[in-house]
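#struct-help
A.M.: can someone run this one for me? Single chain, 116 residues.
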Amino acid sequence: MKMHNLKTTVAELKEKKKEMQPSDMPMDMDEYPYGTRISFTENCLDKIPGLEKLDVGDEIEIRAKAKIVMRESTERAKGDNHERIELQITDFGFADKGNFDDAFDEAQNGSSKRKK
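D.P.: on it. Structure tokens below:
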């Protein structure tokens, strides 16, 4: 599986700042594009063993199975056309390097309750 880094480049950040009006400018620009975060609430944490044990700043590898649920194309008069694809994650697994396949299989086939 090929991994793609989505971090906003310096050039992309400069271009985005040029396009924005001063009143639109957020306090600090995000390092990654909008929509690239995944958030899990308690009902999902109960289904993904071990995820609740992670700390802020930890890095993990993830694997997910997703279904494309929407494809959208917008054409505007100014020519700034936009494409959007929305995915619904249906299966999700994570692991430290070395245990990746086993953790994905465990998350897909079994569920342990989150420890409180």
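A.M.: thanks! The CA atoms of residues 12 and 25 lie 15 Å apart.
D.P.: also worth noting: The first helix runs from residue 10 to 19.
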